[in-house]
What does this fold into?
Amino acid sequence: MSSEKFEDLEDELKTLQEDISGKITNKIPRLTGELRKSTIREVEKKIEDAKLIIEEMEEEASFAPGAYRNSLMSKVRNHRRNLDQLRRDLAKPSGQVNVSFGREELFDSDPMAPQRNKVMRGTETLNRASESIARSTRVAVETEQIGGEIIEELGDQREALERTRDRLKDVDQGLGKSKRILNSMAIRLIFSCGSKQEIVQSLYVYMYVTDPKLFWFSFYFRIATNKLILLCIILVELAILAAVVYLRFFKKSKSKKKS
It folds into this structure.
């Protein structure tokens, strides 16, 4: 919410209300006929314009922070009551107008009253502008302090991350050394075994510990290889058996028939 916009709307509304009040109090009672009717219509139009300004002020006040919203809404309600009073004064018969908006009754008795009112409005506007600047300055200082704290906290987090990275590097180096030591120990253990079968078993254990995927691949590959060799042996035996049967029975029977 822009406090400057609310204050500009309030200044515009005050000027419009003073103009409406002056015409209701001083001008309309002295007029008659069509001129009086046209002036009343003009005042009614200005009252509608003031109503629109009040609605816009209320919308601006609804977006204000909680610390300022109540005071702004109170101002809006006061302006709405003043506008309702002006509307009632306009509807009164001639000679019964009693405007309670303030300061307008001085127009006839004091010719300098409009200038004083303008000076007072200007002073109020300057005061509100000074208060707005002071609030903006406080917000800027608080924002700067929060930004400094955030930067300091981010610096601490960066240092912590760098220390963690260094520790991870040390751990990685330690793991690499441990892995090399374990590999050398495993190789020595493998070659220290006596029989060929023990060496093969040690190699499988080493693969299972260091690379389980390679172990299972080698395991299934060896099973498939063994099955393939067994199948080849069976086929060879079947071929030999077929050749023996052929030579034993079919070839002998052919030789008998020839003889």
In short: The chain is about 85% helix and 0% strand. The two ends are 126 Å apart (CA to CA).
